[in-house]
Amino acid sequence: MTTDPIAILKDIGKQAGKRLARANLFDANVCTSPRNPDRPWEVLALPGDIFRHKLNIPVEGHKVTLLANGDFVVVQVTADLDVDVCSINRQDKVFHLEQSFLRIPGFPSMPVFSRQSDTDLNQLLTCAPLVQALHAFQLTENESLHIYRNGLVLYLQRDSKDKVMSAVQVACRLTKQLQTVTR
User: Which of 32, 33, 66, 85 is the most exposed place for a label (fewest CB within 10 A)?
Assistant: First the structure.
């Protein structure tokens, strides 16, 4: 068992019979590298911060992209969802979401961030598939779920490929259920 996200991604690739691809992704949601003050479009990459490893695998009929840096495994499940962007447990810094006063049933201390009206968001937050998935995910303090119109993104800090793949399977099931619930 390992806690290195890159080693976990390699283990998943080995199991799936796939090789890791190179990536060069700065994700403002979790990357902390500073910007060059003289050239604000340029990131001064800290070691292990930028996502440099990528793996594409099919899971339960979904295209899943996994990314790894020194701290996180990111799970991206592509889908067409009839929702506006929101994040659960950590603020989505890319879309500059605001904290909502709404909470998810059974998760009163887990913050929700959104840009849409709270009335529209309430239907999503109270749907049984989301609540069940959050119970299965058991997100830690630094982990989060982001829901976009083009799919789900999970930021995970898990210590084994089995725990990551378990979360991937839950995310795929949730995606399929949200496609039905949000239409």
Answer: 32
Name the amino acid, one letter, at 163: K
Q: Tokens 């993104």 correspond to what residue? A: 153
CA 122 to chain CA centroid, Å, is: 20
What distance in Å separates the CA atoms of residue 9 and residue 70, rounded to the nearest whole number? 11
Look up the pTM and report it: 0.91
Cα separation, 163 vs 23, in Å, equals 23
Q: Are 72 and 5 in contact (CB under 8 A)?
A: yes
Query: Largest Cα–Cα distance of the chain, in whole Å?
Result: 49
Instruction: Return the DSSP state at 5.
Output: H
Of 58, 70, 68, 51, nearest in space to 10 by CA: 68
Summarised one tens digit per residue, pLDDT across range 36-83 is 889 888 888 887 799 999 999 999 889 999 999 999 999 999 999 988
Distance CA 130, CA 103 (A): 12
